[in-house]
Structures are given as C-alpha cells and as structure tokens.
Design goal:
Shape: globular
CATH topology: TIM Barrel
Strand order of the largest sheet: 4-5-6-7-8-9-10
CATH class: Alpha Beta
Largest sheet: 7 strands, parallel
Number of strands: 10
Number of domains: 1
Amino acid sequence: MDGISNKRRMLAGAVVACGGHAFAAPLLAAPGVLLTRPIPSSGERLPVVGLGSWITFNVGDDPAARAHCTEVVRAFFAGGGRLIDSSPMYGSAQAVIGHALAQLKHPPSLFAADKVWIGSGARGPAQIEASRALWGVPRFDLLQVHNLLAWEAHLRTLQGMKAAGRLRYVGITTSEGRRHDELVRIMQTQPLDFIQVSYNVLDREVERRILPLARERKIAVIVNRPFRQGELTQALAGQALPGWAAEIGCSSWAQVLLKFIASHPDVTCAIPATSKPAHALDNMLAARGPLPDTALRRRIVADVERRT
C-alpha cells in the first residue's frame, strides 16, 4: 500500500489534534500534524483547509445522495477538519449538512459558518433562524453577509447577535473578484472578524490590496473557489506532478493548489468543495507538512500557468 493510502487509513481512524511549529505567520506545522492559523480577533486557531458546500451538497432529498454527502463530512472530520461553510443561496446544502451532522452525532469540533443572503434587512433574522434550524446547531460560530447584499442592515443584525452572545464571529463575503472596491471600504470602516474572497494560483488580485488590508485590520480570511470550481483540478488531471511537489509533501495537484493558498501568511482557511470522501481526505492532507516558500510559490504559479 502506498504512503498516501496509509495516511488516508490513519486519518479515517480519528480526528487529529494540533501541534506546533512556525511558518511565515503564527502557524502550527509538523510532519503529520495539522496546520492551523489564528483568527486575529480572538486567537482561536482553525485548520488551514475547511469544507465548502456550493453545488456539491445541493442534492435535495435523495437518500443515497445525502448518505454520500454524510461520508464526505465524515472524511472531512476524520482528516481534522473543522470549518464547514454554507449559505441559503446553495439550494438544499444547509439541510444536507444538517442531516450529515445529525448522523455523525454533531462532532464537537465543528466550526459552523453560514451566511445571510436576502435583500431585506428586516427579513435577515428569520432567514438566519431558518438556516440554524436546518443545520441543527444551537448557534453559528460565524455568520457572513453573502456577496455584500444589503450589507449595512445585515451587519447591524450580526453585530447585535454577537453582542448578545448569540454569535461568535461576524464577516462579509464576495466571490469571483466582484466588488472589491466596496469590500475594501467596508473593511476599512466596519468591525469585522472575517472576510471571504476568491483566491487561487491563477486569480491573485486579492494579494494587492485585500490581503494586506486584512492583516492591517486584523481580519481573518476565508478563501473560496480555490480550484476555480474544479476548473484547475480538471485541467491538471492526468499530468504528472513536478519533482518539487515532493518537497512540500504533495501527492496530488489539489494539495499543491491548496498549499499555495495556505502558504500566504494572511490566509486563514481555504474551503474547497467536493462530492467525494476520498477527495475530502486528500484535501485535508494539504493541511499537513511543509508549505512552499516564496521562491516555490513563484514556481508553482509559472508551472500551473504553463499547464492550464
């Protein structure tokens, strides 16, 4: 049995605890130990890889499909994952996550991240409560205003919930590089714990303004679309890994792409979505072992640009 299969078997047996080693920012790293970064507003640490649910968990009421998604979530937790992200925008994903969590007896390590996505600020609280009921959690850890929709009203609601002890963290999101100027203004003027933006080896605009501002303002950063919604992994499928991949402990292109993101010191957590339990474990392996340094990051960019 090869090394990757052995690791998967080991990871499937238990949730792995964090250990210690520094890299480029306050980051825990050691061979076989989970890499984590702190949430700047609290110091709480999160694994650098989480789980998204856009498209992949929108499977409706189909029992077999729901059972399959439960296995994805099981594999994610077995690999040491914590942060699961969803939204009312994602069809049945919230209910499917709730079903999985119930089947898994509500793992205590869960970091539940959801969003408010409705044009009326007055209707935000009802939507949030509906989302919480679908997840089956007592409260969310993080709520985010999805794609800046009605953000002023919703941020007031979320900050009120946080002040009342009904929410731990407040954030705001955008995706696919949209409305960055407005996001910057919000980051400069509003008390945020998190932002969520698109970032990957080919889409790097956030490196210019948004990630430095997040560092300055002490805001955690969640990265969506790390694989360009599967476009990057599909383009690289079947291509042999370069020799340098072994230097950072990578046995798949997905791990390379995630380690590129995680190696940026201002990124807190990347949230790839997947419909396959094996891929959930493979993704979590990117949260272990060494990360690329600046020179290797440049080489990864050049290599992926050439191959895609």
